[in-house]
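Severity: low
Component: inverse-folding endpoint
Summary: output formatting inconsistent between runs
Steps to reproduce: submit the following structure tokens with default settings.
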């Protein structure tokens, strides 16, 4: 009989041994997207004043996409990394009829947000940047559009009871990979971008820099 070692699957990584990749985010969804693509990443949450950055962007009359990029840049810059490491910063803004929506402070605010978005289309502005040694090497913004159905108040009550505090970290008060999918009638755009990271453009940028195989 063959030895036990023959039963162990041998890995064939697509990622170069160096440089390391650091994800400047505490988002489990973003980490899962990268790891599901076979990438090895280190996650380090960036501490930035998001509210102050958004206020500054508003004062400079930046749009939601530009603001998402500024937030992503700030997170990448604020993240500690070894020399030469690739730091990926990402953030997301939600706009509906010209209004910006932030992450809800509590479930009462989440209820108000969802009532406002109900029966309307909104846009997610999902930004990602790559930095090495403090220098931005690449950036991208994806803008998927989501059409929220005209759900009933009784559905909304049940949805909030099921999801609870889990949606307080979501800018749109929903997790598309969970019960949040029931909120929608139609979705236009990249699924990964909706989850928080435009994965295909990011993988292409990593190939250009020879960080993963071409």
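Observed output (run 2 of 3):
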């Amino acid at each position: 009989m063959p030895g036990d070692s023959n039963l162990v699957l041998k890995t064939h990584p697509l990622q170069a041994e160096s440089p390391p990749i650091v994800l400047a985010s505490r988002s489990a969804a973003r980490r899962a997207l990268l790891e599901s693509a076979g990438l090895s990443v280190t996650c380090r949450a960036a501490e930035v004043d998001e509210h102050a950055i958004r206020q500054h962007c508003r004062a400079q009359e930046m749009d939601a996409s530009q603001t998402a990029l500024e937030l992503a840049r700030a997170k990448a810059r604020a993240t500690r990394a070894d020399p030469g490491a690739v730091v990926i910063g990402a953030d997301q803004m939600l706009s509906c009829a010209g209004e910006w929506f932030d992450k809800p402070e509590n479930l009462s605010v989440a209820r108000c947000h969802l009532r406002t978005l109900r029966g309307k289309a909104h846009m997610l502005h999902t930004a990602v940047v790559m930095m090495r040694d403090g220098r931005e090497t690449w950036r991208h913004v994806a803008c998927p559009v989501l059409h929220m159905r005209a759900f009933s108040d009784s559905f909304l009550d049940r949805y909030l009871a099921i999801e609870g505090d889990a949606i307080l970290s979501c800018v749109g008060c929903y997790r598309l990979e969970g019960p949040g999918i029931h909120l929608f009638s139609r979705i236009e755009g990249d699924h990964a971008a909706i989850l928080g990271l435009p994965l295909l453009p990011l993988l292409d940028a990593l190939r250009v820099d020879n960080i993963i195989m071409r």
